[in-house]
Amino acid sequence: MIKMTQAFQKVAAIRGMNDLLPGASARWEQFEEIVRGWLRGYGYRNVRTPVLEHTRLFARGIGEVTDIVEKEMYTFTDALNGESLTMRPEMTAGIVRASIEHNMLYDRPQRVYSIGPVFRHERPQRGRYRQFHQIDVEALGFSGPDVDAELIVMLARLWKLLGLTDVRLELNSLGQPAERAAHRAALIEHLEKHRDVLDEDGQRRMYSNPLRVLDTKNPAMQEMADSAPRLFDFLGDESRAHFDGVCQRLAEAGIEYRLNPRLVRGLDYYNLTVFEWVTDRLGSQGTVCGGGRYDGLVELLGGKPAPAVGFAIGMERLLDLWEQSVQMPAPAECDVYVVHQGEEAQRLAARVGEDLRDAGLSVIVHAGPASFKSQFKRADASGARVAVILGADEVAAQAASVKYLRSDAQGETAQQQVPLAGLADVLNIKG
Ligand code: HAM
Q: How far is the CA of 265 from the centre of ligand 1 (A)?
């Protein structure tokens, strides 16, 4: 047992996992509000799946031979029943599992989204964390290029809503499994020829997942990767038509893109369209959003075959970019800050606070002993546009003194007394 007299060693947060404190979280809430409105605008509905899933869901869904499954998952054995469990490293596999389990695709396709934390044991740095957050958007049961394009157009709208200009679109097609198989054979031949420049991961993945070898960041392997046979050249007519369909719609919507034949994504479930939105303003972790089509995943996870396409936005990265691009004052903690002096005034303050909230205002009633002066300081720091002052005089007169704290609140600065009965109306009008 721990003796209470022993000093307790402070506990810090886990490396790569961030606390979100009130100042920053206010910005997140603003952002989430914009995002939810944007998602509603396209008819997406919210789903929430567990943070913990069976490990085999991700091993099968994301692919055994991927960085995520091989080295980045928080996997542990449940001490109570011996099951292998994993903290979700992404949301798509969980959402697809849920859609199968609840027969969601039985009679119609589904547009769904989820917002929440995901976990990857990567080396932490700016824009790369071990717990981070995604806005995950999935269109389940749709096969046409119109939906691929709609998702991309939808993202362009979000950048516009946020006032972001420095994001660009990279696009590729991964074709279908048979096309990938033909490309794979040619690629393995190429890798065998350049075996001497392959690093350890490259050697190991050469036969198990050769496409992933091209996804390398190793500078010594860039030349080999650049000269490798391009999957794009192995696409058949149907895959090309799908890709052209997407490109045409993007052109119609006025969205520019760069065809990047090296774009393979870090998860194995993709086919046909894949895309990423990248920026140069975030250093080495410049991908703010990634996604694509994954027509085989529902069947791979045991469901009746159904096409699907989606994407996920990295929230930390996007917020970082948003903060850099758009200066915004921190939102106020409340509309009205109530300061008071004396026991009776304190009681009145609580009541006035409730009345003003009834009228739709957000109100902080000062708590704890403090002089008027320091209460005013707090009122000012809260960002409230008005202070309501209650002292002995106000109690006697059943009135409140009102002081506007922001000079932009109609230039009003002088203090005025307002009868309590009319206070809410006065404050609401002066907003
Ligand atoms: P992903 O590319 O692995 O795709 O992740 C999506 C986004 O999450 C990335 O573009 C990036 O912004 C962010 N992200 C990834 N790793 C980290 C990290 N360690 N720290 C901070 N942000 C990070 C997926 O997860 C797929 N499930 C997307 C998808 C949905 N595809 C189809 N549907």
A: 9
